[in-house]
Design brief:
Oligomer: single chain
Strand order of the largest sheet: 1-2-3-5-4
Shape: globular
Order of helices and strands: HHEEEHEEHHHEEEEHHHHH
Number of strands: 9
Radius of gyration: 19 Å
Distance between the termini: 36 Å
């Protein structure tokens, strides 16, 4: 099966819209905390979801494309495997306006460096999952359905906000990898394996944020880590440790290297879009554009 299968290509990922109404998300978190008998929650971070914390719990406020109960079902299913994931703390979902709120046990960092060898082994286990065991309600699209991977539409939307030199660099990469979505083999993929989605605990690493669960080539889950050291300021050798745990490296594979390069394009365009309503994002967007201009002194990127 390839990602040309319409049953996969047309489905949206579990979350594909960021939380931009932070006040509304806060009201939803407060309503959920009251429902579950918890104290006032505090905002931890905001991205595609707004995460609030309270009394050892994490309240996840988002705009899922499927019933939020499916995320609880997925976590319970994965808990029966060798893949460490956050555990649901409540069995129900609070709906408040457009938002869905789920409650999770808060993952406590140990302070130790992430064991990327173990993360690689977990991702290998993800790729070996029987897709028929996954909750039927949880979306399992091709990445071709991710809006931010529609580069033509993204560039049409942002064209006036990108200078000519940076645009030339971006266009060259998009054109070179135009057939990126024609996967020869597909497996279940986490879809967003990077340092921000892994927490090291006393029991080992925990893999967070399954919003972009998808069906793609195995190299899809390698690509985010292949550029962490050179572009995101990550430690040297991070990907090599991950690949060792996985049992295979895709370093030098032109197709997977293409996924990695295109992820940098997507990350740049998303930060440019975020800058429209977040002045802080503009600074980071400019850092990323410097890379596409071919600036030899382009600074490392920040996740924020």
């Amino acid at each position: 099966m390839t990602c040309e299968d319409p049953d996969d290509a047309d489905r949206r990922p579990y979350v594909d819209r960021p939380v931009t109404d932070l006040d509304g998300a806060a009201r939803a978190a407060q309503a959920a905390a009251m429902h579950w008998g918890l104290p006032e929650p505090e905002l931890l971070r905001r991205g595609m979801n707004a995460i609030f914390v309270v009394d050892g719990h994490a309240l996840r406020v988002g705009l899922p494309t499927a019933p939020a109960t499916a995320s609880l079902e997925l976590a319970r299913m994965l808990a029966g495997t060798s893949i460490r994931v956050p555990a649901p703390a409540r069995d129900d979902v609070v709906e408040h306006g457009p938002f869905s709120v789920t409650c999770w046990e808060r993952v406590v960092p140990s302070g130790a460096p992430i064991d990327w060898n173990s993360v690689g082994a977990m991702v290998r286990a993800v790729h070996r999952l029987d897709r028929d065991r996954l909750p039927a309600a949880y979306p399992l699209p091709s990445p071709a359905a991710f809006p931010w991977w529609d580069f033509e539409a993204m560039l049409d939307d942002l064209g006036d906000e990108i200078d000519d030199r940076a645009r030339e660099g971006i266009d060259a990469v998009v054109e070179r990898h135009r057939d990126w979505h024609r996967f020869e083999e597909v497996v279940a993929c986490h879809g967003d394996v990077h340092p921000g989605n892994v927490v090291m605990t006393v029991d080992g690493p925990v893999l967070l944020d399954w919003d972009l669960l998808c069906v793609a080539a195995p190299g899809w889950d390698h690509a985010p880590l292949m550029r962490v050291s050179d572009r995101w300021g990550g430690p040297d050798g991070l990907y090599e440790q991950f690949a060792l745990g996985y049992g295979r490296s895709f370093r030098g594979d032109p197709v997977v290297e293409g996924y990695a390069e295109l992820r940098l394009v997507a990350a740049t365009l998303l930060r440019l879009r975020a800058a429209r309503h977040d002045t802080g994002a503009r600074v980071e967007a400019d850092r990323r554009l410097a890379y596409w201009r071919g600036d030899p002194d382009a600074p490392a990127w920040s996740a924020q």
